[in-house]
From TrEMBL:
InterPro entries: Bact_solute-bd_prot1, SBP. The keyword Transcription regulation does not apply. This is Extracellular solute-binding protein. PANTHER family: ARABINOSE-BINDING PROTEIN-RELATED, BLR3389 PROTEIN. Pfam families: SBP_bac_1. The keyword Signal applies. Transmembrane segments: none annotated. Keywords: Signal. The lineage of its organism: Bacteria, Bacillati, Actinomycetota, Actinomycetes, Micromonosporales. Residues 1-29 form the signal peptide.
Length: 435
């Protein structure tokens, strides 16, 4: 691939976006006395992850099985759960005496909030001799310079689109500006093709839209200052809502989009694109493997391609700035040293390569596994990620948990015809005051 920026630049951009949100926190408690004292003692690690469907479910199980084979004293109880349900389970578990040994971790401000529970393991001593292989991206799973999680893949959000439906509508090139995107929507509707699918039932897909308008209207410095200082006082934030309101007025989405889930079933927003029922979806790079069980068309991937969110005329944000993040895992304090060693294994080049080759991960956190990417669309996504001058982590993840959730709720209400551009900003401000 011909890329303008090196892999270290890619990782650094994501790391900056994540670490901007991490305030200084002191854990409320310490369960270290419950951790196994002997690294060789038999232990069973309970592992919660969000690969609740194939191929990921079997792949992660095989990784646990191989580690157990190599380390017979370490056994696993693997419990996959659907993404939205898992986030709720993790939140509840961290308030209980017995959180899982290993659980899905997205870093950022949400991780900083979780650290306050005193139940998340500081893995700094166990990782200091190898964490550098992941580059600066690993910093997104740090709080106060301490490693509380390990990423296994990185993400960027953009438009997945059906090349065949674009051809039917006479769209000859992916839109590069909002004017071109609006024109594409009109051409698709003229051919009775649903232009864009969205899984508004789950709220977070709605947030992608507002977030992208925000990082196009606001300069990177304003965005960084807002995440750091929790003050949304620049008029660009309201302008982002006005842009979104204008776009919603074009009716670009499927019928009953407010009740459509993002990833569950053929009728989800991902399923609509996978089955050729909609032409586009604003989603992360993970959407390609997500679609596999949602369609009987085994050739669907060859009909897809990807393009970044268009430029917004007059906006102060860099048109190349992307919205993204990553997936990783944290260990509970009670899990002991075996957990940290297992996450070292997950971050290894061999395992990261396996994750990419099996469509379990798309953009690996370990740069040595990038060569495993073979799908042409994912190579396009990787190139866009490499070129991005800055990666803004999803606001619901970058901000403190309660603030990010309030922002998502306000945007979802806006999609449902409630509230106003100023109301989204007001919801943020109120959540900051109440956190």
């Amino acid at each position: 691939m011909n890329v303008r920026l090196s892999t270290p630049r890619r990782l650094a951009a994501i790391a900056i976006g994540l670490t901007m949100a991490l305030p200084s926190l002191t854990a409320c408690g310490d369960d270290s006395s419950n951790a196994p004292a002997d690294a060789n003692s038999p232990v069973t690690l309970t592992w919660w992850h969000n690969a609740a469907q194939e191929p990921g479910m079997s792949v992660w199980q095989s990784i646990a099985d191989q580690y157990h084979k190599d380390h017979p004293n370490v056994s696993f109880k693997v419990e996959p759960a659907q993404n939205e349900a898992l986030k709720t389970k993790i939140s509840v578990a961290l308030q209980s005496p017995n959180p899982p040994s290993i659980f899905q971790q997205w870093g950022g401000g949400a991780l900083a909030t979780q650290v306050q529970s005193g139940k998340i393991m500081d893995m700094t001593p166990q990782t200091q001799d190898w964490i550098s292989q992941l580059g600066a991206a690993a910093k997104g799973w740090q709080v106060d310079g301490k490693q509380y999680g390990i990423p296994y893949d990185l993400h960027v959000v953009g438009f997945w689109y059906r090349k065949d439906l674009f051809d039917q509508a006479g769209i000859t090139a992916p839109p590069k500006t909002m004017a071109e995107l609006n024109d594409a929507v009109a051409k698709l509707k003229a051919k009775n093709i649903t232009p864009i699918s969205v899984g508004s039932k789950d709220k977070w897909p709605d947030a992608f839209w507002w977030s992208y308008f925000a990082i196009r209207e606001c300069s990177t410095q304003v965005v960084q200052d807002t995440v750091k200082n929790l003050k949304m006082d620049d008029p660009c934030w309201v302008k982002a809502g006005e842009d979104l309101k204008a776009f919603l007025a074009t009716n670009p989405f499927q019928n009953a989009f407010l009740g459509t889930p993002a990833q569950q079933g053929a009728g989800s927003s991902a399923g609509l694109v996978a089955n050729g029922k909609a032409a586009m979806e604003l989603q992360g790079d993970w959407e390609l493997p997500t679609m596999i069980p949602l369609t009987e068309d085994k050739q669907f991937a060859s009909k897809l391609s990807w393009f970044p969110f268009p430029a917004v005329e007059g906006g102060k944000g860099d048109a190349g700035t992307a919205l993204g993040g990553g997936d990783g895992f944290s260990c509970s304090v009670k899990a002991g040293p075996a957990c940290a060693d297992f996450l070292k294994y997950v971050a290894s080049t061999d395992v990261q390569t396996k994750l990419v080759q099996t469509n379990t991960a798309t953009l690996p956190a370990n740069p040595q596994a990038i060569s495993a990417i073979q799908d042409p669309s994912l190579k396009t996504v990787q190139e866009a990620l490499n070129k991005a001058p800055y990666i803004q982590v999803y606001f619901d993840q970058a901000l403190p948990t309660s603030v990010g959730q309030a922002l998502n709720d306000a945007v979802a209400d806006f999609f449902a015809g409630k509230g106003s551009p100023q109301g989204i900003v007001d919801a943020f401000t109120k959540a900051v005051a109440n956190k």
